[in-house]
Amino acid sequence: MEQVLQHVAQTVEKQLDSELEKLDAMDSGDLEAIRRQRIEEMKKRAKQKQEWLTNGHGEYTEIDGEKEFFVVCNKSENVVCHFYRADTPRCRIVDMHLHTLAKKHVETRFVKLDVERAPFLTGRLKIRVLPTIGLVKENKTKDFIVGFTDLGNCDDFTTEVLEWRIARAEVIEYSGDLLVPPAEARRQRALTVHTKKTIREKHDSDSDLDFSD
């Protein structure tokens, strides 16, 4: 395991060195072009964010029924819809987490829909267990999070875990590892850092050895 982690660390360092060499080789004209491109990207992103906010992104809201559900999906590329019922306690747990995620991920519309108001839709989507979270991209249902099975099968799962599970359907922007749950990813990063530190300390120790007579 130590050899594998050492190899990974060396590979990352080589990639960083390569990127730094590319930057060193650029002249002022290249850097200015990159700067202008970055500014244009930031302007485009700001404009897109304003459009999202106008369409109701950034908040977790309740929609009235099936008709509004289809309107929402037509207006927004990415939609997270919580199908709930007021007398289901676990639905309130989901509400708490989605309130937080809606503010963080303005690129996605977060809504909730009472199944009592949408019998046709819930039947069509075969929703049998509550809570169920529908993950919609480009007007097509990509995935469902049914109950808490995918969230650790417990009521006290973290917002971070739900965020990771939603991200696996590619309906929110996510910079973490989609293959590994957040807690496990942190453990792996901590182990990698510890191994790199140990290797570095061993290297420094070896360099300090004096072989002179």
Automatic annotation (TrEMBL):
List, for all copies, the residue spans of the domain called Thioredoxin.
67-148
InterPro entries in the record? Thioredoxin-like_sf, Thioredoxin_domain
Q: What Pfam family does this protein match (any one)?
A: Thioredoxin
List, alphabetically, the SUPFAM superfamilies matched: Thioredoxin-like (SSF52833)
Q: What superkingdom heads the lineage?
A: Eukaryota
Enumerate the Gene3D superfamilies for this protein. Answer: Glutaredoxin (3.40.30.10)
Q: Which PANTHER family match?
A: THIOREDOXIN DOMAIN-CONTAINING PROTEIN 9 (PTHR21148)
What name does this protein carry? Answer: Thioredoxin domain-containing protein 9
Organism of origin is: Papilio polytes (Common mormon)
